[in-house]
Design a protein that fits this description.
This protein is of the alpha/beta class. It has four domains: about 250 residues, no CATH class; about 160 residues, no CATH class; about 130 residues, no CATH class; about 170 residues, Roll (Diaminopimelate Epimerase, Chain A, domain 1). The strands form six sheets. It has a seven-stranded mixed β-sheet with strand order 17-18-19-20-23-21-22, sandwiched between helices. Strands 4-3-2-12-14-15 form a six-stranded parallel β-sheet. Strands 6-7-8 form a three-stranded mixed β-sheet. Helix 11 runs antiparallel to helix 12, helix 11 packs antiparallel against helix 16 and helix 24 packs parallel to helix 25. The two termini are about 65 Å apart.
């Protein structure tokens, strides 16, 4: 027997020249850089490695390995996550939009026309959404939602759904440790740390909204006169010579600050004119000596600023602002009470003192020279000195650094900025009536570096970002900010979604959401994939076969070969997709024991493609041609799949691991240690909490011996949940038996002697009682309840009340009271009878009436 799919391993490829870059990262020159410059250098290195990679390629595993190594070797001050690379790619890589998209194709391993992704997202007519985009799994993520949301994120990133970053939201840890290990085998040990957003709430920060568009950085010592009117429409960010943030200059700043500057200019203009007039007046007298000129200048400079003509006309506010300006910006301690001489001294203009009188104007005895041409020539020189000195004062005041001082120290407008971690509420509060806020990152020595701006127009929009939901469509199953809009849904549950614009919504009757995702992916891949078969092999195969299905596949491969230079799908990407889809479907169908025709056809298609990629030739290992399409089709088709050696080699590994993991976590629970026994739990309809614990027959005896201990642990969690959220007052926990790999392979599943259970606890309130009545009335009418005998045990002090309630609303079941100090009702039924929470329990749950 040849190699089975269970033996086929992809392995993780790393960048060929990665080592050279890490040698540089540990050089003294690199270590001497600031954290920001190290971040910049690492991103440039990563981009260079991506650009150098030959096509076709699938670089995501290599990038995760690269970033994991950056974190392990502590090259940056905080962990480097994938979204930071995408942020840099969008804002600092200097790639064009087409180049950016091309790099993304290499990363995700799939280069196809962007509009092909309309299968998943509403991006027709080259549409790109504003803000960032989340691809979200539901709360308490299971295998199905984890895998569906992961590939949704990969596709969203690959086709760039939004102009911000793309985030994979996985709120909480995945309970299935085997799938965690599988992700790590395919994408590197650090895959979850680097890719996942674990916080339960979907909210935006400045990182999602920042933009460099229309941002203009200006040196703070630049004169405001150098900025023309059109540039004021940009967000002017003032920086020092090292590029660090100093402040912002907004259009409305100009008017308020300019009034103070103009008022000051009226003072120095008066002084300038008075000085020139003084000189002319003194020199025009019949008898003039040097001491008289100097005395006239001293008298002028001794005048208090507040006594000059312009100051007498100032309003009260102008006087306050001008006094503050002179004290806090110019450094004139007496403000308006100071003299003009003291003012000029602050500007170090000693040449405007009595030294203004140039040599050669007076005779040795101090008398004015009588040579007219000499007098006027020297007078012109003095006037030029005066004009130049006052122009220099104006130029200094007109610099942005001094205008910022006026803004802050006189008007009391402190610099406002936000960081990449600032949330929308903080941004909106700080924005108030401003037109923009600068986004900064911390630098050494308390400095800040501006990376972009968030504008008022942006933050005031009703919708700031977008969301794709995978394996759920009820917004109550996630915590999503009101400014986010759902644009894409793939779900196999009942649908309940409201959107404000045309969205891509795929809701289908399948047991697994990944059945729906896989169908869409295979539809797309059919048009571009070569299934890992070499181009020479495809070209050499003749179109002669009696197998029309094989002929159809071969024709498609030859069509794909013609466009392989322009579009491609890397076989490792394709195999990874199919492998994870298959695992999700097996998990949600409990190894094809609860399955539809649609799920089975999808599984067969996945297996055939995986075998073709693994072997390098077109193969079909599963075919349903010989199975009658009658009522037994699903049983016969699932048996055919499960007894296939390639399929068995895959699920044997999964379920042997699962069986061991379930036993281990059950023992942890019995010891009071943290475990995953109750991890698969969902809050539904805002008031019901329903969990499912899946046990193997080999594990059930251990559970049966310690059932009350396990129930006590669950009851603690239920009560704690109700205390935190009182409206969640109906709690159910299913204990379900699933088949082991050997039982399925031998066709022995379902032949169990024990019984499964459903525990019920309600809060001691009237609404909770009414919700339980509603659930029982609905549940008793289901086929599974009508056609099967069930027994109910009451284990606590509320047994009498519950017994009467079940007698009236669930009369077919036999009832029994066992005083065990647990206020629970335990419904018992044939093992394997109720394994689907989605199909059997969820439709019966009551809703919260608002």
């Amino acid at each position: 027997m040849g190699q089975t799919l269970g033996d086929y391993k992809l392995g993780i490829d790393t960048f060929a020249k990665q080592e050279e870059h890490f040698l540089h990262f540990h050089s003294p020159k690199f270590k001497a850089l600031s954290n920001r410059k190290r971040f910049e250098a690492i991103n440039k290195s990563l981009l260079d490695l991506c650009l150098q990679a030959e096509e076709p390629c699938f670089l995501l595993p290599a990038i995760i390995h690269f970033l994991g190594r950056v974190n392990a070797e502590k090259l940056l001050s905080e962990p480097f996550r994938f979204i930071y690379f995408e942020f840099w790619l969008n804002h600092y890589s200097q790639l064009s939009e087409d180049e950016n998209l091309h790099v993304r194709c290499k990363i995700v391993g799939k280069k196809v026309p962007r509009d092909e992704y309309q299968l998943f997202f509403p991006i027709g007519q080259n549409k790109t959404f504003a803000g960032s985009h989340f691809v979200a799994a539901h709360l308490s993520p299971d295998v199905d939602t984890t895998i569906a949301s992961f590939w949704g994120w990969v596709d969203a990133f690959g086709c760039r759904v939004a102009n911000g970053v793309h985030q994979w939201s996985l709120p909480g840890e995945l309970a299935d440790s085997h799938i965690s290990h599988l992700f790590q085998e395919l994408f590197c040990q650090d895959v979850f740390d680097i890719l996942v957003r674990q916080t339960p709430a979907l909210t935006l920060t400045a990182l999602d909204l920042v933009s460099k568009k229309n941002m203009l950085k200006i040196q703070a010592n630049t004169s405001s006169n150098q900025i023309d009117h059109t540039q004021l429409k940009n967000a002017l960010v003032l920086v020092d010579k090292e590029g660090h943030f100093v402040g912002d200059w907004r259009a409305n700043d100009s008017e308020a600050v300019r009034q103070i500057v103009v008022t000051f200019y009226s003072l120095i203009s008066w002084l300038e004119n008075s000085l020139q007039a003084c000189l002319i007046s003194v020199l025009a007298k019949k008898s003039v000596d040097e001491s008289a000129c100097k005395n006239a200048i001293r008298i002028l400079f001794a005048i208090q600023i507040n006594s000059c003509e312009p100051a007498k006309e100032f309003s009260k506010m102008q006087l306050v602002h001008q006094d503050d300006f002179l004290k806090r910006v110019i450094g004139l301690s007496n403000g308006l009470n100071a003299t003009f001489g003291e003012l000029l001294h602050c500007f170090k203009k000693a040449t405007l003192d009595t030294d203004l009188l140039v040599p050669g104007l007076f005779e040795t005895d101090g008398q004015l020279k009588e040579d007219r041409s000499t007098i006027f020539g020297l007078l012109e020189k003095m006037f030029h000195t005066i004009t130049s000195a006052f122009q220099e004062i104006r130029r200094k005041i007109d610099r942005f650094d001094h205008l910022l001082e006026i803004k802050e120290k006189v008007l009391g407008i402190s610099p406002l900025y936000i960081t990449l971690k600032s949330d929308v509420d903080e941004i909106r509060t700080k924005m108030n009536a401003l037109d923009h806020l600068t986004v900064v990152i911390p630098e050494e020595n308390g400095a800040w570096f501006p990376v972009g701006v968030v504008t008022a127009n942006e933050i005031q929009r009703e919708i700031l970002g977008t969301v794709s939901l995978r394996d759920f469509s009820n917004e109550l199953e996630t915590k999503m900010a009101s400014y986010l809009q759902v644009i894409s849904v793939i779900d196999h549950h009942k649908s309940e979604i409201k959107t404000q614009s045309a969205s891509t919504i795929v809701v289908g009757d399948a047991q697994s959401a990944n059945t729906l995702v896989a169908e869409l992916v295979m539809t797309l891949n059919d048009r571009y994939s070569l299934l890992g078969i070499s181009k020479d092999k495809i070209a050499a195969v003749q179109l002669e076969t009696s197998d029309f299905f094989a002929l159809k596949r071969l024709v498609q491969l030859k069509l794909n070969l013609k466009q392989a230079n322009d579009f491609w799908i890397h076989p490792k990407r394709e195999y990874s997709e199919y492998l994870l889809f298959l695992h999700a479907i097996l998990d949600d169908t409990d190894l094809l024991t609860k399955v539809s025709k649609r799920d089975l056809e999808c599984v067969a298609n996945l297996l055939n493609r995986m075998k073709s990629i693994a072997s390098g030739k077109d193969l079909e290992i599963i075919s349903f041609e010989k199975i009658a399409k009658d009522s037994d089709f699903t049983n016969n088709a699932s048996r055919l799949i499960l007894q296939n050696e390639d399929m068995h080699s895959l699920y044997r590994q999964i379920y042997e691991f699962k069986e061991h993991d379930v036993a281990l976590n059950l023992k942890k629970c019995l010891q009071g240690m943290p475990s995953t026994i109750f991890a698969d739990t969902k809050v539904q309809n805002s008031c019901c909490r329903v969990g499912q614990t899946k046990l193997f027959s080999s594990t059930f005896p251990l559970f049966a011996e310690n059932a009350d201990t396990v129930r006590k642990e669950w009851l603690k969690i239920a009560k704690k949940t109700h205390e935190a959220t009182p409206q969640i007052d109906l709690h159910l926990q299913m204990i379900s038996t699933i088949a082991s790999a050997d039982e399925v392979h031998k066709g022995q599943h379902g032949k169990w002697s024990h019984q499964d259970e459903c525990w019920i606890w309600i809060a001691p309130t009237q609404p909770a009682l009414e919700r339980l009545v509603s659930f029982l009335n609905s549940f008793q009418t289901t086929p599974v309840a009508e056609k099967n005998q069930m027994q109910v045990q009451f284990l606590g002090d509320n047994a009498e009340e519950l017994d009467e309630l079940f007698r009236q609303n669930f009369p077919k079941a036999t009832r029994k009271t066992l005083q065990k100090g647990l206020p629970l009702a335990v419904i018992q039924y044939k093992a394997g009878l109720i394994n689907s929470r989605k199909a059997i329990i969820t439709p019966c749950l009551p809703r919260l009436i608002s």
